[in-house]
Write a structure and sequence with these properties.
The chain has seven helices and four strands, in the order αβααβααβαβα. It has 158 residues and is mainly α. The protein has a single domain, classed as P-loop containing nucleotide triphosphate hydrolases (Rossmann fold, 3-Layer(aba) Sandwich), CATH 3.40.50. Strand 3, helix 6 and strand 4 form a beta-alpha-beta unit.
Amino acid sequence: MAPRLARHFDSRWVPEFGRTYCEAFGTDLTMADLVAIAQAHDRKTTDAVATGSFPIILDTDPLMTAVWADMLFGRRDPWFDRWGNTADLYLLFDIDLPWEEDGTRMFGRAADRQRFLDLCRRELNRRGVAWAMVDGQGSRRYLNALRAMARAGVTARS
């Protein structure tokens, strides 16, 4: 979804660094791994913002990596709560699509997916950031993401 949204807005996107990390080092993650992933992603985001493109589309960010820490370990490193470079808008994608195993994804059981979604919702609300739930399949999901962004005032540059 992120690359497609970036194309729509003729802007940049920052891929999920955690996927790259897990493909290189495996999915047996430690808290230190999650902090390293979050810090690298934050640097990549800062670099993207420096280009002046708008909007920058992030596949994920340290706020969501904090939720991974909660999910994996039931706690998080204090670094996550000190981090404050939150996005202007978060799109939280519903779990209404079938699970697809790809070698790096975790938590494929319905109960785990629901728990992760609930933790995401809780963290977004706790942080007080703007967010919208996006559901639907295929083109409907993409259009719902665009509508959520438009409602939040995100538009393509003229």
